[in-house]
């Protein structure tokens, strides 16, 4: 047998991709302490905290408007399955945290959907879970967005931003032909 045949079987690693956006990031550089270059390994029993206090938070946001500890993400294995997930907990007493459209007050927590937007203040973080098998650790891969993630991403979990007429018909079925919007009497349809 060769060493290749005797080697441990490689297992895939769950990776949490986080894409950060703030409208003033170019002027205030609040993401300067985050490592956007490579994936970072985090032990499964560690709680990943985000906030202003670099002595407590693994992911430091340099902004006085951010709480000392803003929120945390914890990796876990779902009961009676081999699936893994993350729970997000709001640790800020002053700022509400929103996951998609669910608002979390202080110490509230929920399971992180496989693709969602976490927001607080002017911060927007697109979170996407790439599933893996490892139970010992997970990885984070941080990205920086140039444009708001709420505008750039079309998420199935977010409501459509397309207006719907009172009669339930979407205006996209009417050709626009470059005209400005006009009001239509519902009897004319």
From TrEMBL:
<keyword id="KW-0391">Immunity</keyword>
<keyword id="KW-0963">Cytoplasm</keyword>
<dbReference type="GO" id="GO:0043123">
    <property type="term" value="P:positive regulation of canonical NF-kappaB signal transduction"/>
</dbReference>
<dbReference type="InterPro" id="IPR008984">
    <property type="entry name" value="SMAD_FHA_dom_sf"/>
</dbReference>
<dbReference type="GO" id="GO:0045087">
    <property type="term" value="P:innate immune response"/>
</dbReference>
<dbReference type="InterPro" id="IPR033621">
    <property type="entry name" value="TIFA"/>
</dbReference>
<dbReference type="GO" id="GO:0005737">
    <property type="term" value="C:cytoplasm"/>
</dbReference>
<keyword id="KW-0399">Innate immunity</keyword>
<dbReference type="InterPro" id="IPR000253">
    <property type="entry name" value="FHA_dom"/>
</dbReference>
<dbReference type="Pfam" id="PF00498">
    <property type="entry name" value="FHA"/>
</dbReference>
<protein>
    <recommendedName>
        <fullName>TRAF-interacting protein with FHA domain-containing protein A</fullName>
    </recommendedName>
</protein>
<comment type="similarity">
    <text>Belongs to the TIFA family.</text>
</comment>
<feature type="domain" description="FHA">
    <location>
        <begin position="49"/>
        <end position="121"/>
    </location>
</feature>
């Amino acid at each position: 047998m060769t060493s290749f045949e005797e080697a441990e079987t490689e297992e895939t690693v769950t990776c949490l991709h986080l894409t950060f956006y703030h409208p003033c990031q170019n002027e205030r550089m609040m993401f300067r302490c985050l490592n956007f270059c490579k994936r970072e390994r985090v032990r499964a029993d560690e709680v990943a905290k985000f906030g202003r206090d670099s002595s407590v938070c693994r992911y430091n946001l340099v902004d006085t408007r951010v709480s000392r500890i803003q929120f945390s993400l914890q990796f876990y294995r779902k009961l009676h399955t081999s699936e893994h997930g993350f729970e997000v907990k709001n640790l800020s007493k002053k700022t509400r945290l929103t996951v998609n459209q669910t608002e979390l007050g202080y110490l509230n927590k929920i399971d992180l959907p496989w693709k969602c937007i976490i927001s607080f203040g002017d911060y927007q973080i697109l979170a996407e879970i790439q599933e893996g098998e490892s139970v010992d650790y997970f990885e984070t891969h941080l990205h920086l967005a140039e444009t708001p993630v709420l505008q750039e991403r079309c998420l199935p979990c977010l409501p459509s931003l397309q207006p719907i007429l009172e009669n339930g018909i979407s205006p996209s079925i009417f050709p626009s032909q470059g005209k400005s919007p006009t009001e239509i009497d519902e009897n004319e349809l």
